[in-house]
Structures are given as C-alpha cells and as structure tokens.
Amino acid sequence: MTDTQQPNPSEMAEVTQARPHRTLLNDAWIRLRRNRLAVAGAIIILIFALGAIFAPLITKYNFAKQDLDSIFLQPSGVHWLGTDELGRDVFARMLYGARTSLAVGIFTQLIVLLIGLPIGAFAGSKGGRVDNLLMRFVDIMYGFPDILLIILLSAVLRGTVFGNMGGGIFVIFLAIGLVAWVNVSRLVRGQILSLKQRDFVTAARAMGGKGTYITMRHLLPNSLGPIIVSITFGVPRAIFTEAALSYIGIGVKPPTPSWGAMIHDGYNVMFTAPHLVIVPAVAIALIMLAFTFLGDGLRDALDPRSRR
Amino acid sequence: MILVLFVVAFVTFCLMHLVPGGPWDRDKQLPQTVIDNLNRKYGLNQPFFVQFKNYIFNAVRGDLGVSYIYQDRSVTSIIMGGFPVSATLGLVAFLIAILVGVPLGIAAAIKQNSFVDYFAVIFATIFASMPNFVLGILLMIIFSVTLHWFPTSGWGSIRQIIMPAFALAALPAAYMARISRASMLDVTRQDYIRTARAKGLTERVVLVRHILRNAMIPVITIAGPELAGLVTGSFIVESLFSVPGIGRLFVQSVSQRDYGLIMGTVLFYAFAIAIINLVVDILYGMIDPRIRYD
C-alpha cells in the first residue's frame, strides 16, 4: 500500500531535488537488505532452489532407483541422508522433491496471478454487477476451509487430461490455483477501490486519462506492493498444501518425489527409521519459515508507513 | 444463507458427477447388470436434475442419503458419529490456543521489548509458518518414538487427544498471541487510558478494567472463525493421528469416491460454519455494543 509519504511517479520529479532519485522498488530493496531475517529467508530459499535446479549435478543417485540390498541405511558418506524402505537415496529424493515443492509454489502463484489479477482489477475499476458477482462468489469460497475445495477439485481434475501430466503435478497446480486466486482478486479489488479515491487518480482523470489507461498506468502499479507480498505468502501455503495432499495420498503420483509423499512413506516405519520422516518434515518447515521471513521483510520494505 | 447452502449443494453435486469413475469401481470389475441394479437402487439412473431435486428435498429433512461404501449406514449417522469427535478435539485445541496464545500476547505487550516479548514474537513467527502436520509428525517423533509418552494415533483416551490437539492449536495460538499483543499495545496508547491513569487509578485497575477489556475485542473477533474452523475438524491432523472425525471421514470418502458421503460432509461443513458464524456474530453484538447490525 502506498502511503501519502510515498510520492507517486508524477510527483517524483519534484522530489529528486531534495534527495537522490529512488524508485519505490529501489527503496524497498535497500530496506529489504537491511532486514536480517528476510535475508536469511532469501538465502535458505536460494539454497533450496539451487539444490533443486542442479540436482543431477549434486547427487549421482537417481531418485527412483531402488536397491533392495541396501534398505533403511543410516546416513553415511555414501548415502548422505541414508536410504528409504525401497533402498532409494533419501538425499536425491529430497533434492528432486524440492523441485516438486518449488514448482508447485511458483506455478500455482502464476495461475493465481493470471486469474486473480485481471478479475480483481476489472471488478475494482468497473464496479457494478461484475463486482457484486465476484464478492458473492468470494463470500461463498470463504465459507469453506480452502483445503476442502482443493481436495474436491483435485479429485475431479485427476480424471481429466491433466491427470497424468507431469506425474499428477498439474492437477495440484490447477486445484490450488483455482482456489487461491480469490485472495489476490479480493486484494487487488480492495486496493483499486481505495486508490480510486486518491487525488493523483482524480488528477490523471482530469488530464483526460481513460479508464483502462488509469487502471494499467496508475491503479495497478500502485497496488504492486501488496500483490508481491500476498504472492510471497502464497508460495509457502501452496507448498504446504501440496505436501499435505501428497501426504494423504491424493497429491503427485509416485515415483515423482515429493516431501509430503516421503512423510507418507516414512510414517509406517517411523519407529525403525525416524530419519525418513524427520528429514522431509524439517525441510518443509524450513522452507515455509524462509518464505514467511521473506514475506514479512517484503511487507515491511514495501509499506513505507513502517519506515523507521 | 439458505441461498448459499443451495449454491454450495449444487456446485458440489456437479463436481461429484464430474469426478471420473463411479462408486462401483472395484479392483475386480462388477458385471454390468449388477452395476445397473445398483444404479437403479440408488436412483443414479435418473436424469441429473431429478437426482439433485430428490437430494435437496431429502437433505432439508435431515436425510443426507446413503453412503455407497458403508452400505448399512446412512450419511447422516456417519457424520453424526464423526462430528462429536472433531468437536471435542477442536474444543480442546481451541482452549489450548486461548490459554497459551492470549496470556503470552498480553505478557509480551505489558513488558514490551523484554525477553518475554521477544520470546512471544519468535514463538508466533515459528508456529504461524509451521504446517500443522509437520508439527504433528515432529511431536510424534519426539513424544511417541523417542520418549514413548503418548501413543502415535487413535482415539478414546486423554493421552491420545494431547498430541493432535497441540498440533492443531499451534497456529491459532500463534495468531492469537500476535493479535492480543498488537491490540494491547494499540489500546495502551489510547487517550482514555491516559485519562484513567490521570485520575489516579492504580496500575492494576487500569490494566484489568480499561486495557484488557478493550484489548480483547479483536481477539474475540478472530476467536469465532478460529473456533468454527477447529470444531468442524482438520483434514490433515485427523488423518495423521487416525482420529475418527469428519476431517478424516472426508479425506477417506474422496479417495474412495463415496459420493454420498462427500456431498454430505461438504453440506454439513457449509451448514455448521454458517451456524457458528451466526452465533458468533450475535455474541459480538452483546460483547461490544458499538457493533450494530442493520
């Protein structure tokens, strides 16, 4: 949310004389870097991301390769995190599982943006019947726990053409995305409704700006901050949901590695080989914490009211 | 509200019919005649809208139809069997959340920037971002696998309630600690608190009568929806700890394609949440006279 202290672009020119030119994002970046927790979060995410991207270079093991002669091995120099009940290397599964988790985090949020942003912007700027319809729809969606709708949707989607794409991962993208866009949509709508009242929008309109131009040039760019924050918080939620779905057995299909599925597999052998459950559980907790730190940091950095 | 329930019922009904594979899918294919007979018995051979109409008329009378898997039991009786379990677990979790979260938030606000404050903030951040089933798993590893204090799963004894309740309570507790801290700090800065101090009231009276009373309003506001969410069951935590509540019931019914049970649970959710929210709204009006509903 931009605040009165934050000059909008058209006022920027005047301000440059008072202090060096800084854009909003520029300014936010500087504040973000000063936030130690946010930096720590970003570093953790980066490590997981690098691990996911370069998985084949980091480990020589295949995530699906079974070796029934060496099951339930404890962590060692050969198998860094040991092996599971089918003799698969846990470290390799963790790395490739990070791919699944991060892909879910990113692609669901892409879907959320693709659906939520236009609808929210349209409802906010046009108002009227579309707006009413959206809000009624949102009311109904909020009446339910998200996970209920996601479970329902993924059951429906599994039988469609998406069912087998990428080991069931597309179903997860869609199910989460189709439920979560409502949040962004509502956020964008609220932002636009409140920004519409502001003087600089009146000014832009007085200078002859048309509806679409004002939405694209003034309303949307000024709501960017809250949208970025909301997306950052959406990523860990999606990661968690995927893990939960895979845990209860309606997520990605084996042998596609997923941290949630690893917990599911390890659950039955928890007493003999607890590390099979601990490793993915800690990884999920860690990545969610990292995204939360980053999100908190971004919120502080992008909201100039919290400027110290 | 009735309209919302109707829309929910219709959408779920449509989704159910879109789910591929019927309730009669078995590992061993049933003969077509058997399937036809089953369809006739449950009215599944009738046109879509007729099925929907029948369903709604029955649902209004409290009959949610039959389960296709547990053939001898009606959906209503299955849900009524699961709900008390979920409600008990949810209430215990809610109490834990209140008893841990609120005092922590208050203590943090009173001693702002002290050790207690930092502890509360860290507590809130960690548990707010820790998924409940990951927490559940970690609790299991610590208290069941390592210490052997509690059984990993099941339902019936107090020892079996503790871990799932804490796993469920962590997130709301963190949330409540955060809200009550922020609200306390906000109220403390209000003018009427300064007035109360200025007229010579003891710090105790100011704190209890003036600050706490006003600071608790936002806490109560979020407590309502939290309670609704907890009491109606948690899909993941119930599955994790094998608690026979509606959450686990729903997960099972989805994987077993038990249309009757899925429809029933979804409708029950919509109904229960609507009722609880209504009650909560009425309570707000009693607690905070500033709130008026037109």
TL;DR of this structure?
The complex is a heterodimer of chains A (308) and B (294). Chain A has 308 residues and is mainly α.
Helix tally of chain A equals 13
CATH overall fold name of chain A:
MetI-like fold
The computed structural class of chain A is: mainly alpha
3D shape of chain A? globular
Name the pair of protein chains with the most residues at their interface, and give those residue counts: A-B, 40 and 43 residues
Amount of helix of chain B: over 70%
Oligomeric nature of the chains: heterodimer
Distance between the terminal alpha carbons of chain A, to the nearest Å? Answer: 16 Å
What is the average per-residue confidence, as pLDDT of chain B, rounded to a whole number? 77
Question: What sequence of helices (H) and strands (E) makes up the elements of chain A?
Answer: HHHHHHHHHHHHH
Question: What is the string of SSEs of chain B from the N terminus onward?
Answer: HHHHHHHHHHHH
What's the architecture of chain A in CATH terms? Answer: Orthogonal Bundle
Supply Rg of chain A.
Answer: 23 Å
Shape of chain B: elongated
Number of domains of chain A: 1
**CA-CA gap between termini of chain B:** 16 Å
Report the β-strand fraction of chain A as a percent range.
under 5%
Please describe the biggest sheet of chain A, giving its number of strands, its sense, and whether it closes into a barrel: none
